[in-house]
Amino acid sequence: MALVLAPHVLATLGACIITQKFTWLYLIPLVFGFGPGAIVTQSLREGRHEDNWGTFERAKAPVMYWFGVVCWSVFYLLSLALVIVLAYQLELRGEIPMRG
User: Could you report the per-residue pLDDT of 35-68, keeping only the tens digit for each?
Assistant: First the structure.
């Protein structure tokens, strides 16, 4: 599970370097990225992907298996990108824009 968290930690460090300050806001994507990262890691390790669409094994249904792995990987990468987007937003504006 350390491999799942390592990219988020590196993204948070990159965000801190960009803005030259730390905010707890950078840790929110880590919470939401852990689930998809754990699902992808388990699927790749076991060769079987389970989600609401069903259970697909790499040997029996490779297209659906890889489709599920790619979908969850995209969710994981979006949570990583959110850290960098927040850092650039803080760097350019100095704050996160609020509604109202």
Answer: 888 888 899 999 999 988 889 999 999 999 999 9
| CA angle, residues 100, 98, 7, in degrees to nearest 5 | 155
Which pLDDT band holds residue 98 (cuts at 50, 70, 90)? low
Q: Which helix (H) or strand (E) holds 69?
A: helix 62-93
Rounded distance between C-alpha atoms, residue 86 and residue 48, angstroms: 34
Q: What does pTM read for this prediction?
A: 0.77
C-alpha torsion sign, points 93, 96, 99, 100: negative
How many domains is the chain partitioned into structurally? 1
Q: Are 64 and 56 in contact (CB under 8 A)?
A: yes
Domain containing residue 65: 1-93
Asked, for residue 3, whether it belongs to a domain, the answer is yes
1 within a domain of the structure (yes/no): yes
**60 burial class (0-12, 13-18, 19+ CB within 10 angstroms)?**
exposed
